[in-house]
Amino acid sequence: xxxxxxxxxxxxxxxxxxxxxxxxxxxxxxxxxxxxxxxxxxxxxxxxxxxxxxxxxxxxxxxxxxxxxxxxxxxxxxxxxxxxxxxxxxxxxxxxxxxxxxxxxxxxxxxxxxxxxxxxxxxxxxxxxxxxxxxxxxxxxxxxxxxxxxxxxxxxxxxxxxxxxx
Length: 166
Fold this sequence. Notes:
The protein is built from three helices and eleven strands. The protein is an alpha+beta fold. Strand 9 and strand 10 form a beta hairpin. It is globular, with a radius of gyration of 15 Å.
């Protein structure tokens, strides 16, 4: 999975404070403690950042979309969502904590929060924002340890409030 890839990547000290993507039409501001990690093997499909102070891993990925809305592929009203996530992640212990619509860009965004069996380095919790914008799908996937959840959720909200869709 993603954490096995971390062995093959290095930290880039020249990290951008603002991340913009002209093609996928978004800008987001990251805290000073969040460093970009360069993937020298092209194993990660997206930009990878690690917050050295708070212990948050962020994967920003995007693709052209065949869907009309984020609800076409992540629908909080589906009763079988947790089972679908277990299958997708290959983890029978996965527990869905919440699926909701965030306050910013509510017509374009769905937020999933779930726990998995422990991954390398003790990471076991995901908060993923799925965004459908101008025929494109963008994901902000935050991974961290359950023990730091309260402070990390505050940090994630702070980061996501800086998201600007062009």
